[in-house]
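Technical note accompanying the year-one report. For the benefit of new consortium partners, we illustrate the data format agreed upon in the data management plan: each record pairs a sequence with a structure-token string. No post-processing was applied to the example shown here.
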Amino acid sequence: MKFRVLRGNHAEGTYPEGHPWAGRAIVYHINEIVDSNSNLSRFNNPGPLGPKFQRIYDPNLPATDKIGLGLQEAKKVEQALAQNDGNGNPSFAPPIDNSQNNFLESMTVEELRKLAEEEEIDLPVKGTKAEIIKSIRAVYA
């Protein structure tokens, strides 16, 4: 049986094995359609808020594909997290924007060398501060 959620939300089943959210409850929200083995209309209590579920009799109206939507959302989250892995990975690090501030100039040579080491940037062995800054900026140019 199919039901439209009219208020609140409803959990029905879990995401299948192999899905990024495997084992988590599938939650349907307002206006989503649940394909349920249970008669959800039994949860429709009289009161000021009205019924929670509306029975759908149209066989051509598909249930909401929560598994597919969940997979798309999980992929979006994974891509967003991959943009900055939190480890200072230079392939994901945003470019240094020197037009807004000159924070490299405010750093000491020791701090610049530490930054270059963390970002795996090769520096001249006995380079001046200006040469070190130039080397760091060249990586992000």
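Partners are asked to follow this layout when depositing records. The chain has two domains: 2-82, 86-141.
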